[in-house]
Sequence to fold (260 residues):
Amino acid sequence: MIEILNPTLLARARDTGALVADILQALKERSRVGTNLLDIDRWAKKMILEAGATSCYVDYAPSFGRGPFGHYICTGVNDAVLHGRPYDYTLTDGDLLTLDLAVSRGGVAADAAISFLVGAARPAESVALIGATERALAAGIAAARPGARVGDVSHAIGTVLREAGYQVNTEYGGHGIGSTMHQDPHVANTGRPGRGYTLRPGLLLALEPWVMADTAQLVTDADGWTLRSATGCRTAHSEHTIAITEDGAEILTLPGHARP
Fold:
């Protein structure tokens, strides 16, 4: 299913996107050395419910997971890059933490992810990983405009990741979003320009470049959800929800503008 949002729903999408961004920013500020992943999940739950929103994850039970997910946020540490299920782990100095959050409010969902280093340590490999995903995300957003194809966006993302020296996994990528979290079209993190669905104003996309330092192969944790690098190398993941407008792409998940 591909949804094209009318102006009323697009306004709600802006509201939900700002909420997601502000929750992620608050959680980043509270995630320090000594913070437990289960505390992050509890904080996310409190902020989501107090905002009158609902989590897209708690009851999420797709075919690839051992569902339902049962938590309010995805928390990936170091080699965990996607669908990180919170567990009893205390963050240490230099951990690379990825927070991925999707909520729904007013009938519209928004989805975003950030990767950052905990504490004072700044391992060069981790800084490079995070920077590559952020640059790839910016390139994908720049390529998203009315009349462009999904393949143009995928190509822009993939070009940045490959030029940074990373292999690109195409099992998981970006996606359409609207009344539900995951919709068509699929937006792979590499692709051929000029191919795929033509972007139209009112379309919402969640773009999410992610990489692993020295592999493109994933393994699944015993929890049935958390996806890790097959070699144990570090990983990073950046994501925004954007709306295609007449003028290009509007980023909906920037912090600082959430309405009560």
